Amino acid sequence: MAEVTEKKEQSVDPDPAVEHMLFEILLSLPAKDVGRFLCVSKYWATTIAGRDFVRSYSLRFSPEKQPPRLLLAFNTQVKGYQEGWYFFSTPQCLPEPDPVLRTTPRPEPRADFVSSWEFQFKKQCYKNPCYAHGLMSFLYGDEQVISNPTTGKSITLPPATVRSQEMVVRSFLGYDPIDAQYKVLCLTNVTRFCEHQVLTLGSADSSSWRVIQNCSIVPHFPGTDSVCIGGVLYYTASPSSLTMTEPFLVGFDLRSEALEVASVFPEGLASCKATNLINYHGKVALVTQTNGGHVYDLDLWVLQDAKRREWSKQGLTLRVGDTGSFHGRVEILGTCDSGEVVFAPINFRGLVVVYYLDPKTNRSIQNTTLLSSLQQICPKNGSGSGITNLDLSTPDAFDNNYFTNLQSNNGLLQSDQDLFSTTGAATIAIVASFASNQTLFFQAFDQSMINMGNISPLTGSSGEIRLDCKKVIGS
């Protein structure tokens, strides 16, 4: 009888170049052909069934692939230690400037309400939340919360290991695109400097924190800002917790969980206070801003070469115009795919405003959305209990902003907006005069109050008292 032997497939490490070429070729094939190649070899089957290939293939051939969008998060202090968050989404694409007029048309309101939630916490939140690949991380004292704005749901992480008389100093969220894993880097103060702990979300050991051992990085205190780029989580740091001088940039590799000093700060930045970290065309960048109100002067520092620690610097100016009175101070959020730097207000006042600043031309574009904000506050078939201010820009001040709101098409009531938006209306000139001259408005208001005071009220059976303002008199 002939002896039948099974030929075992030898395990050979593929050449990285060949591996990459095979990956790209398979991505370009129809699904039917890819399925046939599962039988070629164990290596091909492992590649095709791998998480990276499945994710890349589904994104490349998805019929519902949508253009990238920006996620905007606004918070409001409800009461005490109760905080409310509103999430909106808006497209990144911007209108092209008119080649003849050399002006950019104002985009139509396109911000969509995503979700909202309120969180009752035990301590005040003194740090900005962190964002990474669709999730947000919040730190309230020692309590750490991860939120998914798309679903409006959140989870509270298990407490980090903190010794007596110590506390959680900072907590940063990062995403590893290779292993498709989220990790939370928690910094707790041990004696004088910080200790690093890591938690992997969704893993078998997601209930326990791991202390990073053999950390050779210089002892430091973390800054308040972070950014995750290409699987590396960056945050600012300093040897001094009080002055935050002699600042440097720390890089945390999410795969190897190794810490290193990515770069010292460029000359001219003596502290990491009042700095923002952003992703600028795939490179980590620092932004500092001065002034405020209607004009913001900014310096953009981009880390061009991490090995040589070379930075480039560019000055920028953002002009928010009269719309700045609607929302107060704005904050830099990052950049969109086309390279514009994105700004939005810190607090939510019912009006969603986004500013795009082109670093190449220093040209800014404004995208204002009021309708979707009001639809969230007072939804169709809602309870009717939602409230908002008649004057969204300066609700607690008596001024002429009511008329400037109308000029920006941000009148709250339709009957108010018609004073300026009705074609040929005689009231357009009145709105324009009061919007440009507050003293003139005050004088007219004084005279109106006197005129109203001179009106003789109807008494006895000469008039009718309206008990329900929604009903017509006599009905």
TrEMBL record:
Its cofactor is Ca(2+); heme b. Keywords: Calcium, Heme, Iron, Metal-binding, Oxidoreductase, Peroxidase. It catalyses: 2 a phenolic donor + H2O2 = 2 a phenolic radical donor + 2 H2O. One of its GO terms (molecular function) is metal ion binding. Binds 2 calcium ions per subunit. Residues 125-473 form the Plant heme peroxidase family profile domain. Its EC number is 1.11.1.7. GO terms for biological process: response to oxidative stress. It holds the Pfam family FBA_3. Ca(2+) binds at D391, T394, D399. Transmembrane segments: none annotated. PROSITE patterns: PEROXIDASE_4. InterPro entries: F-box-assoc_dom_typ3, F-box-assoc_interact_dom, F-box-like_dom_sf, F-box_dom, Haem_peroxidase, Haem_peroxidase_sf, Peroxidase_pln. Belongs to the peroxidase family. This is peroxidase. The lineage of its organism: Eukaryota, Viridiplantae, Streptophyta, Embryophyta, Tracheophyta.
